[in-house]
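# nightly structure sweep
# worker-07 picked up a monomer target from the shared queue
# config: single-sequence mode, recycle default, output format = structure tokens
# input follows
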Amino acid sequence: MKAGAVLAVAALGLTACGGDTTDPAETTPAGDPTAAVETTTAGETTPAEEPGEPVQIDYLHRLPDGEGMTPVSEIVQRWNDENPNIQVTATKFDGDAQEMITKLETDVKANNAPCLAQLGYSEVPDMFVKGLVEDVTEEAKKYEGDFGGAFGQMAVGETYVGLPQDSGPLVYLYNATEFENLGIEVPTDSASFIEAAKKAAAEGKYIASFTPDEATYWLSGQAAGAGATWYKAENDQWVVDTKGEATQAVAALWQELLDAEAVATHDRWGDAYGAAMVDGTLIGNIAAAWETGFALDGLDGTEYEGQWRVAQMPAINGSEMTGPNGGSGVAVMKGCEHPAEAMEFNAWFNTQVEDLAQQGLVPAATAAAKTPEKMSRQFGGQDVMAELVKANERMSTDFGYIPGFPAVGAEMNKVAAAVANGSGKVADIFEAAQTASIAALEDAGLPVAQS
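# output follows
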């Protein structure tokens, strides 16, 4: 057991894995961790049972497939028409992310799992430690050039388990018309962000909102952009540092803004946030790139339609990077009999950037998709997708997550809610992250260095 835990920490501590938006849930690895890190040889395939029969690949996803989008079934059919020897069946999972993870665990144990499945980036370490995904490193490396900074988010240590699909770098959304009316410039760093926020607040406007319900990935993503690395492995132990200099720069920024009452404090997914955009009091915020697909829907038909734009996240701590807030990839599940063929389809599917953009995603591929018509209209004709590709290129590659990170996030959100209500300091959120991270790793049976 101990040996397995050491192997797990050595692998997990070396490469970043991005965030997602799953609900907090217990994801502590179970069973023998030695078994959990066993993997198959990358690229091995099992021949079809009968010569000449096509390889069959099942793909389980939770893409929206909404009205006006290119259906996943239609995308897959194009592949099937052009690749008679590798036939893919795509199935949409209609439950939430954690329910899909539970299903995948059950199916792997029953030797009935699909070859490919969509996983949030922060779910990857748990799935790896539990032995639920294949090592497809050799195959993944073939397609590295097709993807941006999110490529490493499908790796655990030096082991790749799939390919990225979409990403969620933090960007800055703002109402360009309101900024011009107020005589303020788009902030490019912490100092100009604070200055602009105070000037706007004096006029009853807010260029940002502190969003406690998004603290998990919103604040950790800002810390990543500021240059923080919360988790790494040294001497076969996890080293946890959620309170370093870069993270403290994020805490100091938001503390000054809160103390000056220069930002709103609406929950991101509460009614007040959208209402503040509609009434014109909220005129900007740091947001995940994927929010560009729907964040302005409430402004359609109002005087503010077409006034907003996308910019890069302001530099914090002098860093020009941004950090992850969401996104997912497609992993090869344990027991897949045809991993090389599965990865061939995986690479093709996740470079169909126009189709993925129509699904409301920010593709992780390096190719820039055409900005969808609705997005172009809502952002005043801006080439939003080109701006998001820039954000992908600026994403930190040194920030990763740990098994059980959703439990850490739950503690962060709880403390952030108290801070938004005037109880405690922003730094307390990162203190809670430190304590919860150590507890999550210890609960998982993984060794943690004592500070």
